[in-house]
Specification:
The complex is a heterodimer of chains A (290) and B (587). Chain A is of the alpha+beta class and 290 residues long. Chain A is built from 7 helices and 14 strands. Classes of the chains: A alpha+beta (290), B alpha/beta (587).
Chain lengths: 290, 587
Amino acid sequence: MTTIESDTHAEGESAVESVTVRINNNDVSVARGATILDACTASGIDTPTICYAENLTPVNVCRVCVVEVTGNRTLVPSCSRLAEAGMEIQTDSDRVRHSRKMVLEFLGSSVDLSQAPEINQYSVRYEADVTRYVDDREVIEEPIRIQDELYIRDYDKCVLCYKCVEACGDDAQHTFAIAVAGRGFDNRVSTEFDVVLPDSACVYCGNCVAVCPTNALQFKSEFDLRRSESWREEEQTVTTTVCSYCGVGCNLELHVQDNEIVKVTSPVDHSVTHGNLCIKGRFGYQYVGN
Amino acid sequence: MADLKLSVDTSTDAERAVVDAVIAPADHAVVYETERVVRGGTERRRERRHLLLPGLHALQAEAGWISPGGLNYLCGALQVPPAEGFGVATFYELFRTTDPAHGQSVHHVCMDTSCHIAGAEALARSLEAEGERVHRGPCIGQCERAPAQFIQGRAEPDRVPADAASIADPTSYRLPQHGSSKLRLLHRVGVVDPTSLQSYHDHGGYAMLRYAIEIGSDAVIDEVKSAELLGRGGAAFPTAVKWRAVADERGRPKHVIANADESEPGTFKDRIVMENDPFALIESLTIAGLTVGADNGWIYIRGEYPLATTRLRNAIEQCRIAGLLGDNVMDSGARFDIELRRGAGAYICGEETALMESIEGYRGEPRNKPPFPTTYGLFGEPTAVNNPETLLNVLDLLEVGGDHYRTLGSERSSGHRLFCLSGHVRVPGLYEVPFGIALGDLIDLAGGSTGMTRAVLLGGAAGVFVGPDQLDLELSLEAVRDAGATLGSGVITLFDDTVDFTALVLRIAEFFKNESCGQCVPCRVGVTRQHEVLVEMAANGALSDERNTLIDDMATVMRDASICGLGHTASGAVQSAIRLGLVGDRP
């Protein structure tokens, strides 16, 4: 039995109530308010996720984390469904494996996942085969939007996980510069009337870039290096420091290649930032080399 | 959010005027009274967001599209981020976000099932030849008079040409069963004057509201419970359970919603009731509201129903004047009023949680359940969503008593059911029969088929095809379920052996491809890939084993892992057509 604490409870609350669920025939107890995904993680089960992020509200749209819960007609998204006492959960049944495989095939058949190593690992695990779809199929084809020197948008890679929309919206930045527009397969993340970013409400915090799982959103620095085939992630070092611009105390992770800062991130589990930064911390590092 | 960033595009006087008619300048989410005094804030913004959809309707009707300047003005008035406003505007079929560059009305021609086989394409072409603007689109709920069109007006109100007779003479509508003494739900259709509250009173109207107030909420729910009334929208959920759950919620504002967004291809039942007996929906929704203790009633009607919208709007007005809606409904001391909301062309908004998102001013994307609407519904408050036909049945069961009502129908399905017959049937139209009638007998009631029936589509695009060997199928929820089919919203579409089923099934697949909201991966990509496999099949004339497996694999993930019913049912018709050998002759 493993126990984890749920972050939905107020800090300092004593005697957290727990619920016990049965996952793949093993009992596991989690705090009330924990999700099935939390319970799976507590049991050491590696659950694939794409649209889930620990610093964002679950939108449960990718459906790759689905599990089978006895008594439910359909599979349920583990990222958002709360664990209830007595739930019987299967995470590796034929039904679950089939749905996960199909979701991965569907994404692989629609968008460019070449810079999404995590998703590609899942595709191998679930034996996703994108070659079996109609050759002449609809795929996402959008011009790369390079509208400033800070970040680019390459929607050929977009899996519509809504993470950037959430980060731009009420999960982090409250800027609301982008939203999902269109309907069905034509859905695209967009500014109003697709106006260029500098004309939109964007404040260049880069928090959308930080949460993108497929590199559809990329720092311009990374994009340029990749384009000149000199992006070498394996050679990069990461230095953690504290942002010097103001007194908030945001942790910065400086990704350095050839003695140049190529990207700035912040740890998702950092109590101050939860992974988020502002334009200064994210992009204002040029002075370091001066 | 006073720092809302808008583009430099400016609105026209006309655009501002129509938005101001939806929300007056003094009521905007932020009002600058002087340089220093500003009214507004999060609360005001939240309270006004639901005016986004009506505002978009107003802009579209005025300018023929949602222009950047118009959207700016509306978003400024409501303090909605323009990116979100754009996301909502691009979600709906009836809104354009590019300049049409013409001032003409647009003819929406239905291309689905019944219209598909009744010459929809020919109608579209002849309209184009006459110089009209044509948009080929999904079912618009006039299947009994296929091929159908709806005209989205520019400088004229939206209209349906076939409504002209009813507009000229409101009691002229004739059901195939007109005058039958067996009608319990439709007995006023074509008899009562749908524009007159007095006429509704003269035909027994508002007796059941009086009775419901007299016996009280618990007794009404008990009657609904003993009647074993099941929802008629397609899911067949017990109405009493839903009402009890909402009634038991205390201390929060509550809502009842009539889901009149009927968009399932082949369905037109609610339209006929709302056009010809609108007060019945108002009365029954009022009973629902008083019973569950909700102050707020909503009717969400699909955007392609201009006559029903006019009649309901008129009916609501008359009821307010007569004290049947408002602060003291029928002197009961209870407050209840109804807001009418027009959809804007989105099949998915018939899904109850998508409908609520749509009313709230967001994209019509279904929510994950649980939580269910009875606890977390419209604006996050307890909500009972009912189909208009379900509500109509409440009037009937209160009149005869739940116990007697239970004796009507079949063993497990009580009461009368409305069926929408169209396609290759002699007298297409709306029929009311007790649950349990055989499919063949119902078709006979409609004059029989016009040809050699090859297949019957039960439940619409989200339903399944059954073969002519199923004519003795009992039309009850239990028997149809056992047969692996569905009644859905009561759609029965006949197809004879002259039909090109490949083209028909391709169109059904196209319908889902166009109507998926695109939120979840299984449905967004699944309906697209399914359509592509069928396009390939139409070209090859056959379906290989690999392709058949792929169709089944896609159907399984859509059924297992989609968020809502659209994805769950998007391959039922396709798979049943293959099973019946209607399409895809295996090589």
